[in-house]
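Reviewers of the previous submission asked for a worked example of the structure-prediction workflow described in the proposal, so we include one complete record here. The input consisted solely of the amino acid sequence. No template or homolog information was supplied to the procedure at any stage.
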Amino acid sequence: MPYRTEKVAEAIKSAVAEIIVEELADPKLGFVSITAIKLANDYKQATLYFSSFGENIEQEVVMNHLNHAAKFIKNRLKDKVVLRYIPELVFEIDRLLQEEQKIGKVLDDLKKSQANNETTDETDCSEIP
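From that input alone, the workflow returned the following structure tokens.
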């Protein structure tokens, strides 16, 4: 990604995160974190990837809520970021983060399983005369 595009994308990401925290305070959202942004080459569309945390928070509901509020966020973005054209905002669930968490859980389970096998092997060996 060219330097200017990267700089614009980071400014949009920061401003959107700030708007969500300060102006979209809704218990349905939980804690929303903007994890990544993909900005079109012509700057007309920005896809923002997010993750949300909280009790009984469904990612799909949060995504629908954010996409429904996209026009409001875009209008507020005009006050925070100086650009010739403010891109259309699309929110997507950050599936990469979910996959990383699944892999981490599998690795933790594998470590526990190996630790249990090692203790079982040690007790079996100590019983041999």
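The two ends are 67 Å apart (CA to CA). We consider this example representative of the routine output the project will generate in years two and three.
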